[in-house]
């Protein structure tokens, strides 16, 4: 009989970790860095102790104590968590830290799978100096539709739409039923057909585990999409006589390419931080310019010909740019980049610096997560026997259709495929 456990993503946005067991084998869906519901003990200015990152997290409950998952080299000497248990395989839904952040600590005998596009992103991050804590595992690349046997279970990778390449959901087939996991998913992005196709593949499954990020938000009446983001960026380029400052998420490669094209049409050159430029070049993005490149010459004299992406960790570097008193009007365009929002400790210093320099902030992003109406429509379409909402602060706001039992999972509890705690 197959069983299900949840080791993260409960009552919080992020940190997903789902374990399915059958026949002495174990499948783990996502292995994200835990996102605390309260204050993060490891937030800046705290610096993690080299070589003690995982062991310290385990001691304060900021990583799940899953037996037989971690490489003993990252644990305290003699820690029983480092002893091998049942054969295990890990499947990562996409390359965001809250879904993949602990993958570098996994035992070398445990295969770690991800879609090939996601692996490209993760390897480019490593090459640019921003790789996973603990280093990259030996990635097992998947294509959409590919199936992998794990003992008596079979795991199928299915692409979905999110704001990063290689995002996918999974179907886990067991002898007692099929579990579908959305990963992070949306239906208002560039490729909604992918997400609806996943819903169709999952239709009639026994268990649906879905992210529900937006359930805890007060949603605007109109849903913003990528066309709205591009329109607003275009307007900022046209309306700003001086320098346009920009924050966007570099892993959202489609938006990066779109913004580069829009800036080029407007006669502006985008200038990136060195590490970000290295990451984008590693993924084959053309026309990526660093501050020291010849294409960035003239920034001080012609700020209206440039877009600058500042390093979010180096706010004083704004003082080196042609902004503030005596300069043409500038604007800071925030398109889902870092710092991510007011919930982050870095947000207040960020907005303080903009206020001090007289730079207006314009927020133009759109969510990478399904809005509430689409989540309900997806669940209606899939019509699972059992529904587990995770990756949300408000799981009870996802209302199941007739015939579906909603279960609010508890940490570390074992559930059957019928949703009953065992």
From TrEMBL:
The keyword Transmembrane does not apply. The keyword Nuclease applies. Residues 14-223 form the Metallo-beta-lactamase domain. Pfam families: Lactamase_B_2 (PF12706). It comes from the Bacteria. Keywords: Exonuclease, Hydrolase, Nuclease, RNA-binding. SMART domains: Lactamase_B (SM00849). Gene3D superfamilies: Metallo-hydrolase/oxidoreductase (3.40.50.10710), Ribonuclease Z/Hydroxyacylglutathione hydrolase-like (3.60.15.10). PANTHER family: RIBONUCLEASE J. This is MBL fold metallo-hydrolase.
